Amino acid sequence: MAQKGKKRLLRKLLIFIALFLVINEGIQYYFFSVTLAEDELFAQDAAFEAAPDTINFLFMGHSRPLAAVDADLLPRCFNYASDGEYNIYTYYKLKYILEETDKVIGTIVLPAGYGSFQSMEDAYTYRSYYWSQYVDYLEVGKLKDDYSSHAVIWFENAMFPYARHFGRYVDEEFGETPAAPESKPFSEMSMGEKQENAEFMLKKNEGRKQVNSELSLKYLQMTLDLCKKHKKAVYFISYPVTDIYNNAMHNYLNESPIEMDLPQAMIDSADGPFIGFEFDHMYLQDHNLFKDAHHLNAQGKKEFTGLLEMMLVVPDSP
Amino acid sequence: MLFNSLGYLLFLPLVTMVYYLLGHKQRWWWLLLASYFFYMAWRPEYAALILSSTLIDYWAALKMGQIEEKRKRKPWLYLSLFVNLGLLLSFKYLGFFSEVTHDLLSAIGMDYTTPNFDILLPIGISFYTFQTLSYTIDVYRGDRPPEKHFGIFALYVSFFPQLIAGPIEKSTRFLPQFFKKVTFDLQRIVDGSKLILWGLFKKMVIADNLAIIADYVFDSPDTFGGNMLIVGAFAFMLQVYCDFSAYSDIAVGSARILGFDLMDNFNRPFFAGSLPEVWRRWHISLTDWVNDYMYKPMRKRFPSKFGRYVAIYVIFTTIGFWHGAGWPFILFGLVHATYVAVHHATKKLRAAVSKGTGLEKAPRFKKIIDILITFNLWVFAGIFIRSNSVSEAWYTITHLFSGQGLLRYKYQMPDFGMSEFVAICFGLLLLAIMEITNRTDLRNPFHHIKWQGVRWMLFFVLIFGIILFKTRMSEAFYYFQF
């Protein structure tokens, strides 16, 4: 009788596990095919695949290059930058492009300036449903000397890629989070609102105070080494921001100083120029060109791309 | 090693598997090894503290066992108290006493710089110190003979499921369990796992999301309006309940898998109709400990009415101070002492009010009123324990009803969005339903659900709720800091 009971319990357990796996698969299917059906990251991957095989300038990095460069206006250029893309992500994506695809890349354009060299505390989990296809979390763990927690991240991404990101979906679909940026155009905001907007842009990434910028710089160095290995030139560009943002950043750094300069040795080791717009007066006070304190709007993007076209020297052959 | 980590989800099955493969007589060393590994995963060197307490108490108890006359056992009890409380004092309270000494000397005009003790608090020290003390006190009293098996005694002190945050088990109840032969029972493992699942849900979905609000509010109360301070105070108390009761559930569940029966640490405290009742339902193992080893002996010595109030203040100040080295903790204890003292002093008055207002004839309504008042008083006292300083606690209390909107400026809580809000509402609703419907067996939170389909659905809701709504950063259990 006891044996019968055990068998029944065991059978129940197996059915439970099977059901769990089925539901998990179902959620994953729903997540990728419905929730992420129009996800801009996957759309960007598809666009890259469809792009010509030869790319003269490949723009990479975070939201600032994403907002500033209209690659359609530049011949044989592709803007592969994405929101919240830090050095760790850039390195792995670039590694994939250079080593796994047939694309012939001429020059890699990396972002410089504050926000480009720090890694957010949660950078490893930010949109990991997408980044896990590139990032070797186990290698990150080794480099960060924290193998076990990165093994957990790796496991979570493999088993439950939708974990936590469903919450993000709830935010975007149904809710207005307190963190949602102001919907009013930046130029129409009052001075107080502009300052608030700039402070928010800095505060929302408060995690940067606890950054492992050493790790981030290590990945930047790895990216430069990777480019050197594949004989690719690297340009650094610091993208335009407003004076409001620079002032807010100045105050913010006084409160919580962090290392923000790109080491000269790295600039020197890159086979290309450093082009700085972060303190360019042409942009600092022209708020009509910005959608928020440090991202260009459509008009700004168009004008900046025009300027960039004149400045970038397109090599004869990649 | 955190209960809410993947590491523990691998550690527990491995320990369980080897445990049941070994024979009964070999199991103690395996559990002892696992327990020390569990603790040393945090800071290996601090395991020496547990070992010191274990060695001294083992030896002191053996010596006490050789002495017939209770009075003559006292020096050995004092040795145990001296060593254990000395370690606790050195690692937990030295910095606080140094600060107080400096303040007192400054107040009388003496400019003396006291040493700055920047010592990392060994996690669980308050818990295992009280547990091991219960053993020496029991032996001293003659309630149990000294344990001769050093390994078993060491395991009693360091048993991993309850080592870090209790329940604080008494030797008379818990030590004999290590000698009981445990056979493999799949049903028990399933029951233990269900309790762990329920604990993980409370911790990862409710407590961790509530912690975001509480942390924002109490880290800088002066930047929030009164309404948000009220929300923060409620969020904190609910967070602590879900966090600590979750830890206890996981501890009880883990122990059950291994065939041990840990005591209940919570019994739906927010359904209590008075503050003394809350303390009989909240952190029951600590309340039992202070009741048995402090309150009862004090009442025996001072049986008068005045003695009772003195004992109440001593006990609750101790409970407050046990939680942490700082004035806010002491104030927390004093506030609770006052609650309980007033409760006893106004017994007749309250009965008269109840009779006069007719509430006596509507016991259910009266109970609801009592529960609401008690809950609010409990939340109010929580402000002291969560505030970083007395001045911040004072600021919070004096601005609770200052009005103003929830947030003073936009984006004040960037990590708190709709998903966190949904997680809290969904989690608290489920918790309320479970606590209202299950009044009989808290160790089996799902036993009252008769239909297997509904039970399974609930399990899947809990599992996928955890996966979907857990916070980005895995939070340590709140009581680890005590």
Detailed description of the structure:
The complex is a heterodimer of chains A (318) and B (482). By secondary structure, chain A is an alpha/beta fold. Helix content of chain A is 52%, strand content 10%. In chain B, α1 (6-21) runs antiparallel to α2 and α10 crosses α16 (363-386). Chain B contains 19 helices and no strands. Chain B is globular and about 65 Å long. Chain B has helices at residues 6-21, 27-40, 47-65, 70-107, 125-141, 150-158, 160-163, 171-174, 186-219, 226-257, 275-281, 284-301, 305-323, 327-345, 347-357, 363-386, 390-399, 418-437, 452-469. Chain A binds chain B through residues 5-6, 9-10, 13, 16, 19-20, 23-24, 27, 121-122, 125, 148, 151-152, 155, 160, 162-164, 166-168, 170-171, 174-179, 182, 196, 199-200, 203-204, 206, and chain B through 5-7, 186-187, 190, 407, 409-423, 456, 459-460, 463-464, 467-470, 472-473.
Low-confidence stretches of chain A: 176-181, 207-212
How many runs of DSSP E, i.e. beta strands of chain A? 7
Cα(first) to Cα(last) distance of chain A is 77 Å
In N-to-C order, the SSE pattern of chain A is: HHEHEHEHHHHHHEHHEHEEH
Strand order of the largest sheet of chain A: 2-1-3-4-5
Report Rg of chain B: 23 Å
Strand content of chain A: 5-15%
Overall form of chain B: globular
| Average of the residue pLDDT scores of chain A | 79
- Average pLDDT over all residues of chain B: 87
Helix content of chain A: 40-55%
Biggest contact: A-B, 40 and 33 residues
Q: What helical percentage do the residues of chain B reach?
A: 55-70%
Helical stretch tally of chain A: 14
H/E element string of chain B? HHHHHHHHHHHHHHHHHHH
Radius of gyration over C-alpha positions of chain A, nearest whole angstrom: 22 Å
The count of helical stretches of chain B stands at 19
Structural class computed from helices and strand pairing of chain B: mainly alpha
Outline of chain A, from the CA principal axes? globular
Q: Which segments of chain B are poorly predicted (pLDDT under 50) over 5 or more consecutive residues? A: none
Calculate the terminal CA-CA distance of chain B, rounded to whole Å.
16 Å
